[in-house]
Amino acid sequence: MFYAIATLRIGVRSGYPLFAEDNGAERKGYEIAVARMLAARLGVTLDFVDVTPVTRLSSLRENRTDLVLATMGHNSLRDGEARFIRPHYYRSETMILGTVPLLVQNWTDLADRTVCVTVGNYSNALLAPRVARLMLFDRPSRLIEALKSGTCRFIAQDDSVLASLLNSEDFAARFEPKLSFAAIPWGMAVAREGSNRLAELLDALSREMHADGQFLMLAEQAGIATLYLDEQASLWRTQACQIAPERCVAPALETRLAPSLVAGLAEQIEGAARALGMPISLNMVHSEVAWHMFLEGLVVSLLAIGGGLAATFGIALGFGSLMAHAGTAQGLFLRTVVVLLQGAPNLLILATLAAVANALFTFSLGLALVTAILSIGLMNGAFAGQAIAEAYRTLEPSPGPGSMRRAVALAAAQIEAFLVNATRGIAAASFVGVTDLTNALTDISSFSSNQSSTYWILLIFYVLAVFAVVWGARRFRKSLEASEVAQ
Amino acid sequence: MMDALSFLSPDMGIALAKGISLNFRIALAAFGIGLLGGLVAAAIIRARVPILSGAMRFMLAIMRAVPVFIAMFFFVGILRSNEALLIRLTGNAAMAYVVLACLPYAISYIADQFLEAFRRWHTGDRRVAILAIPNIARAFQVLFTSSCFGAAIGVPEAMSVIIREAETLGNTPSRFMLFTIAILAFTIVMQCFVFVTRLLHRVLERQFIEPTSSA
To answer: b/e string for A307-341 if b means 16 or more Cβ within 10 A?
Structure first.
């Protein structure tokens, strides 16, 4: 026996295809094979203990396992909770998987696309700024269902989760990897206290298993990607790494997000709220990346609301004037436009205008914002314009200079209603990739732990925005009506 | 006709029909709950218990201000961790999110219509009071179009089907043809609603108003 204990309790997953599966009769997969190889080399018997992503680290702390070998990414946050064995035994990446006919060669091709992800992944923080929208799902199985059903055209998920699916011919005929990013090394880990000897042995064994190609062979037998293991095998065969291994081991992936300027203040507010029995989480301001997204979302939302109101009023005036002075054919055309805008859902008009804009110009966030503002302006402005034109006709016995102004004053109530409606409607701009507050907070939620407070903030922001517009529009209406009375 | 639509996927028609049926079910569920909620809200306000009716008026003001799209993301964000429970209760979590999102609008709008109808009825203006019925029916039309917001969270309703199909067509004339057809199709459906609402209005006027007037 090479190690001082007779039985090594290894925590493994039980339902992770190609890596660790337990069908009742036998366990199989790359990690199972690695566990068996380690036990054999250490000269100990092996006792498998089932763990999950939630229990794998606690199983070490609670001494239910001696070693955990359970699809665990080695990141800087976990370094404080366990002693990771290096060199790492595998590396996965986040893969963008998409429908075969959709051509994606680089990130620019995804700039106006929606990508579906599972919540809580660190890689979402890297993905969010590169794509139009993230659609969130709570677990990988739902994500894959959504891809298969066509609800999602692209998904981003760890390539180890997708490995078994891509081995299926049917699946590979419909979907293919488009891009990869956010590589993360996988580490086996032991408890931080009292496991130094075992950790050192496993460090040495890992180096050996890379150098003699054992990891690579086991991966090939399991049918998983081997690029990383190929590189590691070459690396650990070099004399430099054998003499000074510490120079060749890779560090943990740094997943601690840089704190924002207001992180301290946010913590104080959270502490004060907790003391009052209100557990809130201001995760949108803790990290620099989230704070930046939040501020940008806030500014874009305010711009969208302001732009939507201006466009609605401007288009109402233009449409009203056109309809008021239109001949029969022009009038029929304009009424048809109103009927079409009345009949189609907001999202359809938004998507149609966005498609036209993207066909004419290269997609950009500015273009998406302008398109959304024009769509909302058109949908609400056309109705308000119709009301202005109808009011104008009531003045027809005596149309003359100032009639249009009087018509606007007479239609003030409808204009007010459609300005408020435009404020509510512009909230959907995120659907075409506008980086407004909805998009920003969804993105932040995708890599943050607490989501409830985030969505409360979103709701409160829009309710307050609508209240503000109702107040402003009512004052505007009164001033219009007052000017009408004065005349 | 079929040749002109040959650019569409073969299963597009079935998917669209299923999508529209889902839109109807969402609108119907939101309408049903909204009808009940609106009636209760209006009754509470009419009861004139100061705190209760004040609180209900405040709640309705908030509900009027909530955009359906935002409400949908709000419910998804708040309830995602309890999705299993939502599925057990409703059978379809995605659909439930959209129904819930439509409720602030449905309840507040329908409550407003009931309040106006009660007020008019009591002042003897029965003709205007009866107008609440077609007005309430009109809410169904709004709920039907609002249900299309479900596309943003992956609900496989009609809008989702159209967007999905459009993505496969790329920036080709066919894509714009698809959008045009979709706008026309929705307009026809909406005009049917408008027709039914107007018909309902006329029938009600004939049934309830004219005999009273002549009497």
So the answer is: bbbebbbebbbebbbebbeeeeeeeeebeebbebb
